[in-house]
Design goal:
- By secondary structure, the protein is an alpha+beta fold.
- Helix content is 27%, strand content 35%.
- The protein has helices at residues 2-35, 115-151, 164-190, 235-240; strands at 53-59, 62-76, 79-83, 88-93, 102-103, 108-112, 192-194, 199-204, 211-212, 217-223, 227-233, 249-253, 259-272, 279-285, 297-314, 324-327, 333-336, 340-344, 347-351, 359-362, 376-379.
- The strands form four sheets. Strands 2-11-14-13-12-15 form a six-stranded antiparallel β-barrel.
- Helix 2 (115-151) runs antiparallel to helix 3 (164-190).
- The N and C termini lie far apart (101 Å).
Length: 382
């Protein structure tokens, strides 16, 4: 019994002994880890890091010819929905009237029943013949009456005595009959619908056998020989042009950069667009390149006036915030907000900074640049 009591008393002591040994082992391990920590030698130095290298482009003031660019939609000069001028049944739909067809001016499109109009022409011709006959009779009566008074050696008392009013009525009757004949012939001509200009049929509304009335739509025809463009310019860009601009030649360029020929300025200015408050310039393309299609957007480059004291930089030199960074003679950075004149083909032309130049401009400025920061400029030439 005494042995069991002693054994029970010794168990807590052993437990505490093991806990103490574990804590001691843990402390030893931690000390070993601290001793084996990274022991890279760090040497203190008073030398500052070298200034960052900055690629610069050297520019000098020059005289340049401004170029104003804008995007404009290509529109056909003539774009019409052709409608019937007469009524009747369509007796023929020609191949040129089918949707997508390319037509030339004068090509036949539709034939409308002609019998009523042929009859009207014949009736008008007969009416004209009768009117001309009455005119001949009136002229003869005037001649006879005048000769009678001459033989009697008397003066006619009035115009009625020599049938002059009847003659004037007969002349006007002939003129009216001739006008009715011309109208009847025009209606007969309108029964054969032809293309008023060259272009493409974009939509057909009427079909064979359909009865149409004056004003009913037949086809939609879009010009393919002459195009128009309307470019909108800011008032600042408008001021860069050499006025008057009528007759100036502009270059047309695809959005991808390919050249598409020339356009001539018809006129521009005079008023602002009510919605955009921009100046509108109207251009004509009379001999379009095959790549010019109605509805496309093209870049229009209009030559402007010559401007002195400008600097042309790569567009990369301009930060998103609209600044450029100059490197002064002491190789410190100076930030400048430029007066941009125009952009052209990956370059930006600005008013030359104050001074005589040349200037060193950071080609690709970094967001980390600070005014007054010292740098090591490296020019493109080496």
């Amino acid at each position: 019994m005494t042995d069991k009591i002693l054994e029970n008393r010794q168990k807590p002591a052993r437990r505490w002994l093991w806990i103490g040994l574990s804590l001691a082992l843990f402390v030893v391990i931690v000390m070993l880890l601290f001793d084996t920590d990274d022991t890279i030698d760090v040497q203190a130095t008073n030398t500052s890091p070298p200034p960052p290298t900055v690629s610069v482009v050297s520019v000098a003031p020059e005289n340049v010819q401004a170029r104003v660019s804008a995007f404009a939609e290509v529109r056909p000069r003539w774009d019409a929905e052709l409608r019937s001028a007469v009524s009747g049944r369509i007796t023929a739909v020609h191949a040129a009237a089918l949707t997508g067809a390319k037509v030339e001016r004068g090509d036949h499109l539709f034939s409308i029943e002609k019998a009523p109009y042929q009859s009207a022409v014949a009736a008008a011709e007969m009416e004209l013949e009768q009117a001309e006959l009455e005119l001949l009779r009136a002229q003869n009566n005037v001649t006879v009456a005048q000769r009678q008074f001459e033989r009697d050696e008397k003066e006619p008392p009035n115009e009625l005595a020599v049938n002059l009013p009847q003659l004037r009525i007969a002349e006007k009757t002939v003129a009216a009959a001739q006008a009715r004949l011309n109208a009847a012939r025009n209606e007969l001509k309108d029964a054969e619908v032809t293309a008023p200009f060259s272009g493409f049929v974009t939509h057909r509304f009427a079909s064979l056998g359909q009865t149409v009335n004056p004003g009913d739509a037949l086809i939609h025809l879009s010009d393919d020989r002459q195009f128009e463009l309307v470019a909108e310019l800011s008032q600042a860009d408008w001021a860069l042009l050499d006025h008057p601009i009528s007759g100036a030649t502009a270059d047309l360029t695809q959005r991808s950069g390919g050249a598409l020929g020339k356009a001539q300025v018809r006129r521009g200015g005079g008023f602002l667009d009510q919605n955009t408050r921009q100046v509108r310039v109207f251009l004509d393309v009379t001999n379009p390149d095959e790549g010019i299609l109605a509805g496309d957007f093209l870049q229009v480059d209009i030559p402007g006036r010559r401007i002195a004291d400008t600097v042309t930089l790569p567009e990369s030199a301009l930060t998103r915030a609209g600044y450029i960074w100059l490197v002064d003679d002491e190789e410190h950075l100076q930030r400048l907000s430029p007066n941009i004149l125009f952009r052209s083909e990956g370059t930006v032309t600005i008013v030359a900074p104050d001074g005589t130049g040349p200037w060193r401009v950071a080609r690709t400025p970094l967001a980390s640049f600070l005014p007054g920061q010292q740098v090591t400029p490296q020019s493109d030439e080496g």
